[in-house]
Amino acid sequence: MKVASNMRTRKGSARRQAKRRLFQRAEGYVGGRRRLYRTAKENLVRAGRFAYRDRRRKRREFRRLWIIRVNAAARMNGLRYSQLIDGLIKAQVEIDRKQLAEMAVNDPVGFATVAAAAKAALGLS
Asked: 36, 38, 99, 105 — which has fewest CB within 10 A?
């Protein structure tokens, strides 16, 4: 039996590898979202969009959380959030909101010291 040498190939192994990679990424999905090629591909695209969006959203939400915590601690020390930040800028204290929030939760005495420095810079004492 002679095999025709002019048959075209259809990316056999490359396509199989691509599908395998796609199905590996779809592991954990339920039903056809895991087993059907087209459905899995659509769901992975959708999941990718959510992941991209939420990586940015996560940063915003953490910053909001830090500001809420700093504001609560600032009010316990007789300042509003905006006054605290303004006082820290004037006192040339360079602590970011993440560190301020960490201090507010875990080191109230240290936060009170920072708040006192901000008050002094504003002339509120």
From this structure: 38
d(CA 97, CA 106): 14
The class level of CATH for 12-122 reads mainly alpha
Are 111 and 75 in contact, with CB atoms under 8 Å apart?
no
d(Cα 7, Cα 54) in Å, to the nearest integer?
48
In the chain, the amino acid numbered 101 is A
Mean pLDDT of 53-73: 97
Q: What gap in Å lies between CA 82 and CA 87, rounded to an integer?
A: 8
103-117 pLDDT per residue, tens: 999 999 999 999 999
pLDDT for the residue 101 = 97
Tokens 């659509």 belong to residue:
42
Centroid of chain to Cα 43: 21
Q: Cβ of 56: how many Cβ atoms within 10 Å?
A: 9
